[in-house]
Amino acid sequence: MKFITKSMDIEEIVEKFPETIGPMQDMGVQCLVCGEPVWGTLEEKVKEKGLPMDTVVERLNRVVSEKNKQNK
Which of 37, 39, 48, 70 is most buried per CB count within 10 Å? Predict the structure, then answer.
């Protein structure tokens, strides 16, 4: 199941799925500045870093999926 897409705003991802903040930071995708979400889409930030889009989206969706399994 897909929770996160490349066209989503970083702010929306951080708000809906705070468990993705650590993984995004680990991959070098800036998602917070001084505790506030970064503006722009996931796609824009991933392209800035030159990372493989599909890999980033898959990893973030895996994190959300695992979190949902733990909460059941």
Answer: 37
